[in-house]
Amino acid sequence: MLTYLNIASLLGKLVALMVTGLGDTTMKILESSVSQTKSPGNFQSLNTWSRHVLSLIPFVLHKTLPVVQRPPSVSASTTTMVQSANTHLAISNTFVNSAVNNTQGSNVADQTKARPVLDQQVATTIKFKVLLQELQGSQEICPMVGPTANNSTRSSTLYLSQSSLQLLKASVSTSTKQLYLRSYTLLHKFCAKQNVPFSLPFTEVLICNFIGDLFQQGYGPSTITSHVSAISYLHKLFILPDPTHSFIVRKTIKGTHNLAKSGDIRLPITKSILIKLLSALHHTVQEADTRVLLSTIFLLAFHAFMRLGELVARSSVYNTKVIQRQDLLFLDDNSVQLILRHSKNMKDGQPIVLTLAANYFNPQLCPVRALKTFTSLYQHKSGPLFTFKSGHPVSHSFVAAQLKHAIEFIGLDSSKYLGHSFRIGAATEATKNGLPENVIQQLGRWQSNAIRRYIRINAFRL
To answer: Is the pTM of this model over 0.70?
Structure first.
């Protein structure tokens, strides 16, 4: 007699055999997404698990059925549009590449039927260079921007007006475009590695395998979710069905959370949070000199991608291991040099020399200015750089406690913002500003792919 568990098991094997397009890593991640329901303990959970497996079957059948070809009744205007897509679909200075059907036929009826829906054939002609042109600010003509003087016969209703175009441009910030570009770069590399075309629309299987590849490289669940969100944005902009919301993609993402090696809940102290923390010190710390000391530590930890343990010691045993006063050198009014003699990833024991530049655009966040103010108040010539006026080195626990008070003052969860959050925030902020991963790796002195665990980019709000 077949039980629900037998049926579910058989269905599971059937689905596993049918989903041949998914990679091994992707399958492992997908399997982990249902780990809590693999061993049901009652009738209801058995039934739920069976339905869970059954729900995959429409997707599998859809993927295994042959693609239905477009009937021969496609209008000539669509054919013309396909031929001209690569030359005319040059995107301007925003994500305005959701190209409206740029129908070019002379048939008035064809123009009347035109919809702002990207034809699938046109979508497949969109290559990576078009995205690069858009993200880097191409000034070529966009088919959404309306007819030129030499082409005034086209209906103006097929185009975005200049005012609506400006509004669409304003909806995407520069930093967000940099993040999208990073996501598309990773996807383009993956497609090239898999020898599959980089063209819209992307299939659910390709996206799942992309997720599996990112996870295998060491990317965290939140970062992977952000890259998937960028793909979602692209499909929505082209008015295409969004494959990222499919059941199998959502479950694959869930699997990355279930299989994540660490439950690191530390959040980044970004530039905006750092500004709030510096202001909060005026309310949480009474002594002005101590505020200067803490502000300098905060700014140095952020701008130099430093671990808190490299600045202040956890115990007196490590007082000689933190940065020393003689390791600080002002090169001129515009920069300062720091020498790290003890660091986690030091090669062959060779000191690491860091140079920080002044920030004249935002003096409140300038590390050089902060260090000058600090050294004018704390004039010791030897020992740990951060020392109280009494001569006692500043301890790690003191800084952690003061950070906790400031975090709570600005209304954030102090259990998620710790000393290492400055380093995490620096990596995250650098990524938002478009710095390449290898450059960030050098700035933070990371080895291999460890940097990817530090970049915390929330899923894009679409």
So the answer is: no
